[in-house]
TrEMBL record:
Protein name (database record): Glyoxalase
Species: Solirubrobacter phytolaccae
Classification via InterPro entries: Glyas_Bleomycin-R_OHBP_Dase
């Protein structure tokens, strides 16, 4: 998860918060492509 976050930020995406534990998963959210919400998470 941390590596994917680093890859996306290196590619220029502005991600609002770094990965964190939430609802039993570890991950992060971001919006892209005309404000579509994406979730990247793993258990």
């Amino acid at each position: 998860m941390d590596a994917e976050y680093a890859r996306l930020t290196a590619a220029g995406l502005e991600l609002p918060k770094p990965p964190r534990r939430m609802r039993g998963t570890y991950g992060f959210y971001f919006t892209a492509l005309d404000e579509v919400l994406f979730e990247v998470a793993a258990r």
